[in-house]
Queue: 3 jobs
Job 1
Amino acid sequence: MIVEMVTVGPFQENCYVIGDEESKIGALIDPGDEAARIALTVERLGLAIGSILVTHAHVDHVRAVAPLAEEYLCPVLMHEEAEAMLKMAPQQALMMGMKFGKVPAVDGYIADDEVVEVGPLRLRSLYTPGHAPGHLAFHAEDEGIVFSGDALFAGSVGRVDLPGGSMQVLMQSIIGRLLPLPDETRVLSGHGPETTIGLERISNPFLVGRGAL
Ligand SMILES: [Zn+2]
């Protein structure tokens, strides 16, 4: 599996360009900003982008969705509960002194525990709210990778002080859906460096001692 991280925008958000090595079919996870740089990465990797997957609709994760959906003529997919926040993206951006541009259309919803196919690659959706409404993580089980969005970070967890946030719900999401993944699972999150489930289980100050459910 091809996985390339492109860190974009003022919030240093991690967009992931993923794809199948043989068929060269790919997808974008959270193209948050700097559409041109993401497109350049896609071109260098020689991928045909078939879908855009969104973990949640915070402005730093979706600002480049519309131009890239237009460029690749591909569907934009997210959880149904994330759509209301997406519609608020221009206002979210304005509060941070940024311009948003066009609000992308949502072409399909991904429910919990659904398999999203990227060519022969299979990503299972994990409903993980608490940081934002309708937050999804994407688990590429065969590859041992989880794209954790802003639910889980190396040494931290997502902030819960934005609209729709709840620490109790976030902890339920992490403990119930992410920590059960195998220890060696690579965690590629929406901000910051890569980690593993096992490392977070024993060292993340929010999770230590809470892993056994
Ligand atoms: Zn976020």
Note: DSSP finds seven helices and 14 strands in the chain.
Job 2
Amino acid sequence: MKSEKMIAYGEALQTVEEENPVPQGTEVLVRISHCGVCHSDVHVHEGYFALAGDQKLDVTGNRELPFTMGHEIQGEVAALGPDATGITVGEKCLIFPWIGCGKCGACERGYENHCEDTRNIGLNIAGGFSDYVIVPHARYLLDPAGIPDGLAATYMCSGLTAYSAVKNVGKTGKGDPVLILGLGGVGLIGLQVAKALLDGPVYAVDLDNRKLAAATEMGADGVFNSGDGDVHKAIFKATGGIYSVVDFVGSEAMAKLALRVIRRGGKYVLVGLFGGGFSMPTAMFPLRAISVIGSLTGTLEEAKEVLELARGGKIAPIPIEERPMDQASQSLQDLRDGAIVGRVVLTP
Ligand SMILES: [Zn+2]
Ligand SMILES: [Zn+2]
């Protein structure tokens, strides 16, 4: 197998050739056809996430170098371990990468994405910047039928993240307005998921009028430019207050806006990783009965649900740019520089 590996944090990936791994036990060997390049790959490559101020969260733990990143993987089954069942060699598949220990409470509840001892593919165990990858169990292989190749791979991270964030809003009534903050790739998917799943009107905020126009085209019931000084007043006037804000930015300014417009009993779902902080008097949480919910990727069940939604034509495809696998390093750099529209998907 031939992989693009991280040898040292922050340095260019290197091509490494080695023997194909042989699947053991329930493991499945997948021949990779596509692997998306995600913003979190950039953070993993740098070795940290920016937090508030100049604080950084170290993300170099639970991973050995050299390491193969890549967690938006599509391919076909190449070989089965002796105990692998439920799938046959040659079947096309997507790989659910958010794998837990399988033993803790979170895993037991089906929230492997909340496990404290993750075996995430492409983050803790070898991932998709390669032509082959080992998957621990066939239950993590999902059916990509009905979705264009390459695009389907991106639903394992960006699509799933958007879907799960909106699921965290829970049940809504017709009079429960929901506000999407930030209309990058993930936010635009979130908007469409909200329109598909929720009963109340869906509003959107961004700094870029072109993105706001795109949101209107995708069915937003109203849009607001966050550059307008009194945007919270405009939101209040149009909506009477928001039941749930889903924040795909996660900046200080967006948090401030969210906590200003949320109604009593409302929810603030935080999914964006821009970085920053907020403070609120503790008594305001009970007095306004506000919940703040952090949303991290999604569950295996939600991954199946978002694929179903995409198959049903409820999510407009994001632009995909295919590049050869040996451009993995360059693609990380381009993503860091903001030089990519849509998603780069690498092909071995
Ligand atoms: Zn990702
Ligand atoms: Zn676990």
Note: The two ends are 10 Å apart (CA to CA).
Job 3
Amino acid sequence: MPAQHTPNLEALTRAGVRALMDPELRASWGILIAFTQRTGGRSSAPYSSLNLASHVGDDASSVDDNRSTLLEALDIEPLRSRLTMAEQVHGLRTREVAGASAGMGAFARLGEAPPLPETDALITAEPDTPLLLCFADCVPVIIVAIRPVRAVAVVHAGWKGALGRLPASAAVLLARRAGCEPSDLVAYVGPRIGPCHYPVGEDLRSLFVSQFPNAADTIAPPRDRLDLGAVVSQTLSEVGLPRDSVFVADICTAENTDSYFSFRAEGVTGRHGALAAVLGWGR
Ligand SMILES: [Zn+2]
């Protein structure tokens, strides 16, 4: 099957919220993806301002308002009851969101269903079901299937997820769900801590070198700095995604704390988000 879409990300601002998005993917295929920045919300320092995570000590009503602000900015506010989130634990579990699991975890203030437990990758083929995971340095990955069935995956990968090839296993499950091959998927690797700001000790360095034959791609000079984005794109390539079907954003969160939250650079801080949704064709 020929390439269906060439992934691309551009920074767009709407209603004060700035995010990296692929407008052509939405226009042609009705699939929305967004990697959010931290501005345009109502949380105060150290969570200023568009903090999307409820587990970091921020005021719950601010977090709920920020999630609503994001949905409005993305023009999907009517889908708020189906916004689905997960309890991220740096594990290797992928869950499919369907039926009753749609809408879990999104709006804590309403006392509704808790987030999907112990899950670091979400998949859905259900239209109008936005998936949202939260990040501050870890690698956000969005994977998209266009046909025969439209479906999306959102993945949270720190070093454990990258080492355990979680984005690649989510891609394989997504392809199976969509009835295509992994080579038909497109993927986006979003803003994350870059090798410039991620020195690692000998234990971690040797773990990655032992797992990845092409270690020069994963451990950047001076050989003790880990490039998680390169690891993730290498593992997506291993399961069949063509290199030109994977867009890797060239943004380090730790050196861009005006735009992104960084746990390593800031300690107590908020979380930006990666969101994906298959939109109903009428939307
Ligand atoms: Zn950096």
Note: The CA atoms of residues 219 and 226 lie 5 Å apart.
